[in-house]
Amino acid sequence: MSNYSDKYEAVVGLEVHAQLLTKSKLFCGDEASFGAEPNRHISPITLAHPGTLPKMNKEAIELAVRMGLACNCEIEQKNYFARKHYFYPDLPKGYQLSQHTTPVCKGGFVKVKSVDGERNIQLNRIHLEEDAGKSMHDQHELYSVVDYNRAGVPLIEIVTEPDLHSGDEAAAYLTEIRKLVRTLNVCDGNMDEGSLRCDANISIRLKGDPKLGTKVEIKNLNSIRFLKKAVDY
To answer: How many angstroms separate the Cα of 50 from the Cα of each of 47, 150, 151?
Structure first.
């Protein structure tokens, strides 16, 4: 029986979303704290009423730059947001404001130590964006309900290159990111509350093959253990 681990290797890229520790949302003064009654931290701007306009949260930019400097990134001096259009019940505007062409932080790396050894995991970018609200499907017998408290809360998305190759390495990387955001006071790192969550992009290829395999994305992993299990599977 052949040993598949000798023949194939996993290629993994991670997208980590971290809610920033600001008092207010990314583009308005609505409160950004966790745990309020549904739909208490909302306003015409959060709900995207016609005629409302965004105003940038300066502290969110400062926290993003702080994380970028800690991750050895190049800081983009002139950056802007784009509309990422997709339909989502808990996205009031019908689009998400996110940095695409000019992320606030470019490149960089995070040093990790795992059973596979110590090395620098290469980053593609760290960019700013707003969070969506929360759909719930078990609160009512006939309907899904939506809580918009989280809509517009500032996030950074920390995106690696496809540079990880095992569940252990992915877990070590996410552990290091959680340490960094907590030490820098950028994010509370509470995965059980959703303020830190991870999407894993995973493919498999023959060892030594430079071509990437077919990618599968596993969304919204909310624990380091679940990330490791997903990659290993």
So the answer is: 9, 20, 17
Cβ 54 vs Cβ 80: under 8 Å: no
Strand partners, 196: 18
For 147, the enclosing helix (H) or strand (E) is strand 145-147
Question: How confident is the model over 33-76, as pLDDT tens digits?
Answer: 999 999 999 999 999 999 999 999 999 999 999 999 999 999 99
* Helix H or strand E segment including 4: helix 4-7
The whole-model pTM stands at: 0.94
Surface-to-core class of residue 18, CB atoms within 10 Å of its CB (0-12 exposed, 13-18 middle, 19+ buried): buried
**Which residues lie closer than 8 Å to 81 by C-beta, 6 or more apart?**
97, 98, 99, 128, 129
Q: Partners of 113 in the beta sheet?
A: 118
